[in-house]
Amino acid sequence: MKVKGIRDILSINSFVRRATPQTRAQVAAELARLEHEKQRLERELELRRQTEARLQLTQERIKFLVGVLEDLPGSSDKTPAAETQIAATESDERKTENWRGVTLEY
C-alpha cells in the first residue's frame, strides 16, 4: 500500500486488526490456499526424491560400464571422450588445410 498522507499510515490498532482475518470466508480462503501450497511442496519433494534415486542408479551404471570397458581386451588408456576429441581435432585440421589466408588492413 502506498502512503499518500498521514491518514494512510496504519496505527498499531489498525495494523493488528488487518493482520487477523475478519470473516470466516477469509479464514477458509487462506486455509485452502495453504493446503494447496502444502500439496504442491509435497509433490515437489517427491519428485526430488525420485530424481535423486534415478541419479544414484545412473551413477552406479556409469561405474559398472567403466569397469566393463577397462576389463575388455584391447582397451586403451584413452577414454572414449578423449578419442572423440582427438578425432574432432584431426578433422578440424584437415578442414583448415584448404583455407587461404586473407590480409586485412585497418
Describe the protein's architecture and organization.
With 106 residues, the protein is mostly helical. It has one domain. Helices cover 69% and strands 0% of the residues. The protein is built from 3 helices and no strands. It has helices spanning 12-19, 24-71, 80-96. The mean pLDDT is 79.
Seen as an oligomer or otherwise, the chain set is single chain
The chain-level mean pLDDT equals 79
The number of strands is 0
Distance between the termini: 59 Å
- Flag low-confidence runs: none
Relative strand content: under 5%
List keywords for this structure.
3 helices; single chain; 106 residues; elongated; mainly alpha
Structure summary:
By secondary structure, the protein is an all-alpha fold. Helix content is 69%, strand content 0%. It contains 3 helices and no strands.
What is the strand and helix layout of this fold?
Elements: H1 12-19, H2 24-71, H3 80-96
